[in-house]
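[job 0412] stage=complex_fold ligand=NAP status=START
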Amino acid sequence: MLVLIGSIILGLTLTLPIGGADMPVLISLLISYAGLSATSLGFTFGNYGLIMVGSLVGASGLILTRIMAKAMNRDFWGILLGNITPPEITKSSDDRSFYEGKIKTASAEEVASILEFSKTIAIVPGYGLAVSQAQQVLKELYELLTKDGKFVYFAIHPVAGRMPGHMNVLLAEVDIPYDRMKTLEESNELLPQTDAVIVVGANDVVNPLAREKEDSPIYGMPILDVDKAKVVIVIKRSLAPGFAGVVNPLFINEKTIMVFGDAKPVLSEIVKAYKELKV
Ligand code: NAP
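[job 0412] stage=complex_fold status=DONE, emitting structure tokens
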């Protein structure tokens, strides 16, 4: 009885303080615990099947938790001890003054012209791609550019979106070739030689504050170094922050142009403008 009450208290204290978007980390940790308890049951009953399957689930859950913790800049041991602290949301009126007068915008036609002159193009998908369900039109743009002889690749951050593998699943759904999906490390090697980057509904995973500002909640999180490419095109609806709630200096970088709007219609307009350039 004491164990049951203790477990309920532990479960509640572990899960209640966690923000919705941090749930995937907790879920992978709980799956891992379930695996470990199956292993211990296996030892109790002398059941090798339970020991093997439980160890497999326990170990893979722990590995996934570690990968996610690293990519989200969370303390792995803190998570193991039940202390998942979501970043402080710092949405504020300062955001407006941070960006004021420093944003460059472009039309779909201007973006199409930039793409026409680019040989190597990276596409960075983020949470906004999932919200907009723009993967099909993104595939259309990818095919158009590839047919035109350009090298197009997808730079995928391990925690882009809201669950592990979120972007890979969206892109696989529309049959993007697997060899065009590049990991964080592969992308960061390619980005300095990339002519244009299209950031589609991503924010935190391309935020240079993670490299530069020690007191930022995302400081130390590995990011995609899109600012090392020649031109950065950012598609999002507004200047609203991402999950971490912080401003993004990428948006005021001299290389960056913003195209404001929902990702799906914006990408459709770019596709249309690109096709018109070619006739
Ligand atoms: P993000 O930082 O949350 O930014 C997403 C951006 O998408 C927002 O700034 C938003 O701006 C834009 N957006 C939303 N709807 C859109 C639409 N319909 N069309 C166009 N843009 C849209 O996303 P991220 O760069 O992918 O980073 C993921 C974040 O989630 C990281 O901080 C990560 O730590 C966290 N996280 C990830 C996981 C995981 O397992 N993947 C789990 C938990 C937490 P607008 O509102 O201005 O459009």
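The chain has a mean pLDDT of 90.
[job 0412] exit 0
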